[in-house]
Amino acid sequence: MVIGPSDKPIASSAELAGADRGLASRYRRLWLISVFFTAFVSLTPLLIMTFVNFYQYKKTLTAERTYPIAGLASNSRRFIEDFLHERRAALTYVANRESYENLCDSEKLNEIFSNMKRSFGGFMDLGVIDSDGNQRSYVGRYELEGKNYKGQDWYNEVSFRGVHVSDVFLGYRKFPHFVIAVRKDEIDGGDFYILRATIDTEVLSRHITSLDLRPSTDVFLINRNGILQTPSRHHGDILARGPIATPAFSSKTEILNVSTKEGKPRILGYAYIQQSPFIFVVLEHPEQIMEGWLYLRTDLLWLLGVSVVLILVVILWSCSYLVSRVRDADLRRDRALHNIEYTNKMASIGRMAAGVAHEINNPLAIIGENAGLMKDLLTIKDGPPEAERLSRIAD
């Protein structure tokens, strides 16, 4: 420490450097704490809101993307159910209106079949089968009169339940088709007969191919065993094994995440067709469903990253600035304390010097007074003063 021309203490560079080194860890810790808590308070709400929005946007977009699949499955289910119901009702009406004799008449049956085909469409042939399973009368393009169906599953079911809609099968025709059959009980003899119509599967296939779908979307019908009942775009022709396992029964339309037999992930929408063995299936690629979400997710992550970087830059700058101001204030305070301490030291030295001077001045004053008295005595004209008095003054 040195004293300048203005008698003010000036701290040396070595002393200031030593003070800086001594306080460096303190200011570094203060800076780290300031950065941590400021960043925590600033970034935590941003991160929470971002992840909440991330989840909500994903959920909303997924629902919006899967809603068309559910709507497609529900609308197609209603179409197929109405299609089957109309033809079951037509067969029931004919069975109740016409007598067994009329139905066994080939000309009368041909007229009935022509009216049904013209009114409803989709009918390929019509036949009457007795309780022994023999086809008693038949109208259609195949020679099936006299065929026996008693050993077939559909015959046993319609005999037991009264109505039956079959799976698609080849049968005697060697052509994919399904049948709708109703049982009519004879009142007199207690016997029964079955009115059976063959339905062209092309009607269902045309409905499916008419749907406005993405190229990656696959729509088809399967039965309860997972066998294709209509052709599939990407997974085989009719009567081939379907690409997925048979989904669990549900009375409403369902949307699931599944994997194909090859292990590829798919979005599955399906609906069971009531009073039939059919299941309407929609398969969609997940990347097509989530395409919009991927873009939004990228935007959210970019926004989060840029926001975090900007916030951290501001926090680092502000904390560095504030800690620097604190450090400068501490240095100014230290200098002021040094100046005060130095001033106190100088004041103490001044008080001590004044006391020493006071203690020295008192005997010097006495000496000066006595010397002046002796001088006065020696200058008396009548002669020198008494020797005894001069000796006492000298002592």
Give the arrangement of secondary structure elements.
Blueprint: E1 2-3, E2 9-10, H1 13-97, H2 100-104, H3 106-119, E3 123-130, E4 135-139, H4 153-161, E5 163-165, E6 177-185, E7 192-200, H5 202-209, E8 218-222, E9 254-259, E10 265-272, E11 279-284, H6 286-289, H7 291-378, H8 387-394
Antiparallel strand pairs: 1-2, 3-4, 3-7, 5-6, 6-7, 8-11, 9-10, 10-11
Please give the order of strands in the largest beta sheet: 4-3-7-6-5
H and E order = EEHHHEEHEEEHEEEEHHH
What's the overall average pLDDT, rounded?
83
Beta content? 15-25%
Structural class, judged by helices and strands?
alpha+beta
Termini Cα gap: 50 Å
User: Spans of 5+ residues with little confidence (pLDDT < 50)?
Assistant: 1-8
- How would a textbook summarize the main sheet? 5 strands, antiparallel
- Radius of gyration over all CA atoms, rounded: 56 Å
Proportion of helical residues:
55-70%
Shape: rod-shaped
Number of helices: 8
What does this structure look like?
- With 395 residues, the protein is an alpha+beta fold.
- Helix content is 56%, strand content 16%.
- It has helices at residues 13-97, 100-104, 106-119, 153-161, 202-209, 286-289, 291-378, 387-394, and strands at 2-3, 9-10, 123-130, 135-139, 163-165, 177-185, 192-200, 218-222, 254-259, 265-272, 279-284.
- The strands form 3 sheets. The chain has a 5-stranded antiparallel beta sheet, sandwiched between helices.
- A hairpin with a 5-residue loop joins strand 1 (2-3) and strand 2.
- Helix 1 packs antiparallel against helix 7 (291-378).
- It is rod-shaped and about 195 Å long.
- The model is unreliable at 1-8 (pLDDT under 50).
